Amino acid sequence: MSSQEAFRIEYDTFGELKVPSDKYYGAQTVRSTMNFKIGGVSERMPVQVIRAFGILKRAAAEVNQDYGLDPKIAKAIVQAANEVAEGKLNDHFPLVVWQTGSGTQTNMNVNEVISNRAIEIMGGTLGSKKPVHPNDHVNKSQEFSGYVQQIKYGVARIESTMPRVYQLAAGGTAVGTGLNTRIGFAEKVAAKVAELTGLPFVTAPNKFEALAAHDALVELSGAMNTVACSLMKIANDIRFLGSGPRSGLGELILPENEPGSSIMPGKVNPTQCEAVTMVAAQVMGNHVAVTVGGSNGHFELNVFKPMMIKNVLNSARLLGDVCVSFTDNCVVGIQANTDRINKLMNESLMLVTALNPHIGYDKAAKIAKTAHKEGTTLKEAAIKLGFLTSDQFDQWVKPKDMLGPQ
């Protein structure tokens, strides 16, 4: 097969994309694989979820037929959905769990697979969306400096744990006594590992502690858990500040990476923010497991080692991947919506706080309440109440002077 034949061209609302000719998925699935390279094959959406989607899509098709869906189209969708439910098309679902938080892209992955398979059943051309459309038929009826400091602190916390993580228990044998090893063995092994890896590994000063407890891993996991908490807060703030465009805060303009809804045309979701918050939740869960594991060092040996290291490594991988994805696909493209910011700022009733030193809290509060009740500006309310002049208001209420101590 030539390189030209290896792909077909499909379109979503953002433009055209190359789709592998031997796959039933379409453009939106491809776009998601481009935007969410997080965790690799092991982090793909569980096949149980995909198969459940097959059952749901079959049920929807049968009900939609009762409401007027073309029986021929319904029959083809049912057959394709059955194949999904039976696990026959698992190779056509490449998306990872870490995507839009609503799972919209996996829903569209299922829609595209069932649509194209149904098109094939009916003798059509893959990617044509005719006579079976993935949405119309298959889915029918269904504050930045503070953020920088948070991340800096998070990285510093992780780095501060590493000296204890680099301590090796090798040479402690079964319970930490070093029985049957040669004098100097532990130190030389640690030095050799350090030489081979380029990392500052050392022998643990107390092998009993190193074997019976894994507090260093709990500490490292805790530091990553703190980073996850920071990322959850940051991603949610950015998501809310970017809400809109017609309603919501709308103070930030977020990059538009892919279509956001299989139901509402033109909708765009803060998908990178959603992926960050899901990863953060997973890391928090991993830390709970690591904490339980660390507490189960009975006498001279901890017996939760495999689970602990699995979760620590998983947290490190997910945090690293999602931070790169979030940076490349969202943070670097964020723009301030200055017109919206200025509008909200100038209409904010809280600007009245600047008047407290000049006219007192009670009068300032009355100005705010009057402006709110009558739907006027603070300035208009202040002048109407006779508390100050227009020039005084302009002199005392300056948002740029309210950014810090004066």
TrEMBL record:
<dbReference type="InterPro" id="IPR008948">
    <property type="entry name" value="L-Aspartase-like"/>
</dbReference>
<dbReference type="InterPro" id="IPR020557">
    <property type="entry name" value="Fumarate_lyase_CS"/>
</dbReference>
<protein>
    <recommendedName>
        <fullName>Fumarate hydratase, mitochondrial</fullName>
        <ecNumber>4.2.1.2</ecNumber>
    </recommendedName>
</protein>
<dbReference type="InterPro" id="IPR022761">
    <property type="entry name" value="Fumarate_lyase_N"/>
</dbReference>
<dbReference type="InterPro" id="IPR000362">
    <property type="entry name" value="Fumarate_lyase_fam"/>
</dbReference>
<dbReference type="GO" id="GO:0006099">
    <property type="term" value="P:tricarboxylic acid cycle"/>
</dbReference>
<dbReference type="GO" id="GO:0006106">
    <property type="term" value="P:fumarate metabolic process"/>
</dbReference>
<feature type="domain" description="Fumarase C C-terminal">
    <location>
        <begin position="351"/>
        <end position="403"/>
    </location>
</feature>
<dbReference type="Pfam" id="PF10415">
    <property type="entry name" value="FumaraseC_C"/>
</dbReference>
<keyword id="KW-0456">Lyase</keyword>
<dbReference type="GO" id="GO:0004333">
    <property type="term" value="F:fumarate hydratase activity"/>
</dbReference>
<dbReference type="GO" id="GO:0005739">
    <property type="term" value="C:mitochondrion"/>
</dbReference>
<dbReference type="GO" id="GO:0006108">
    <property type="term" value="P:malate metabolic process"/>
</dbReference>
<dbReference type="InterPro" id="IPR005677">
    <property type="entry name" value="Fum_hydII"/>
</dbReference>
<dbReference type="Pfam" id="PF00206">
    <property type="entry name" value="Lyase_1"/>
</dbReference>
<feature type="domain" description="Fumarate lyase N-terminal">
    <location>
        <begin position="141"/>
        <end position="285"/>
    </location>
</feature>
<dbReference type="InterPro" id="IPR018951">
    <property type="entry name" value="Fumarase_C_C"/>
</dbReference>
<dbReference type="InterPro" id="IPR024083">
    <property type="entry name" value="Fumarase/histidase_N"/>
</dbReference>
<comment type="function">
    <text>Catalyzes the hydration of fumarate to L-malate in the tricarboxylic acid (TCA) cycle to facilitate a transition step in the production of energy in the form of NADH.</text>
</comment>
<comment type="pathway">
    <text>Carbohydrate metabolism; tricarboxylic acid cycle; (S)-malate from fumarate: step 1/1.</text>
</comment>
<comment type="similarity">
    <text>Belongs to the class-II fumarase/aspartase family. Fumarase subfamily.</text>
</comment>
